[in-house]
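Progress note, sequence design subtask.
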């Protein structure tokens, strides 16, 4: 049986995990593990509605299932909290052959919040060559508050930075950030939860 089947909402999520997951055994102290990806054709709203059906056929082929989705765009962000979305999807997975073998990761508000780290690797990945530092620019323009490290609108702010840098937005840029930038100080709840689950699933024996 293989280790993990991962259901992502789009190519951006796939490329980020593709770059990030090989680093987890070294950075977070797990044993090495294998994984395969499938993309949800319904994207984030599909992840909320259809994950259990899409993953049902794989329940006897993989030990665990991981579902990744953005909170913004899931279709119920105005009715349910991110925690309630996670619980709802996890309960459907429990009843579809994945009981106690699944993890649902709902990123608030979206994947781009993982891309914002005050790190030279981030500025290199987006081709930032302004005299003013990336975070100084973001704070001067009110995209990031003085006491925080994430923009309130991470996707829109990243797109503005990419445009200013003359770098086309692409999954490859996201992958480059995930491949090199340290995540040790990441305080995002969804990210911490995902890493914690991987540590539980794949402890070093």
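Output:
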């Amino acid at each position: 049986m293989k280790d993990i089947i991962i259901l992502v909402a789009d190519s951006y999520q796939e490329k980020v995990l593709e770059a990030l997951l090989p680093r987890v055994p070294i950075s977070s102290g797990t044993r090495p593990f294998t994984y395969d990806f499938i993309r949800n054709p319904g994207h984030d709203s599909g992840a909320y509605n259809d994950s259990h059906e899409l993953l049902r056929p794989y329940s006897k082929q993989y030990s665990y299932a991981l579902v990744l989705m953005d909170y913004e765009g899931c279709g119920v962000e105005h009715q349910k909290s991110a925690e309630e979305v996670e619980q709802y999807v996890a309960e459907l997975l429990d009843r579809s052959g994945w009981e106690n073998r699944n993890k649902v990761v709902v990123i608030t508000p979206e994947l781009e919040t993982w891309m914002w780290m005050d790190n030279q690797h981030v500025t290199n990945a987006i081709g930032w060559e302004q005299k003013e530092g990336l975070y100084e620019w973001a704070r001067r323009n009110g995209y990031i508050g003085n006491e925080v490290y994430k923009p309130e609108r991470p996707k829109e702010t990243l797109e503005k930075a990419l445009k200013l840098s003359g770098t086309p937005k692409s999954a490859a840029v996201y992958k480059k950030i995930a491949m090199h930038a340290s995540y040790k100080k990441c305080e995002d709840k969804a990210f911490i939860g995902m890493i914690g689950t991987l540590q539980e699933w794949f402890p070093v024996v």
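The first strand starts at residue 2 and ends at 8. Work on this subtask will continue into the next period as scheduled.
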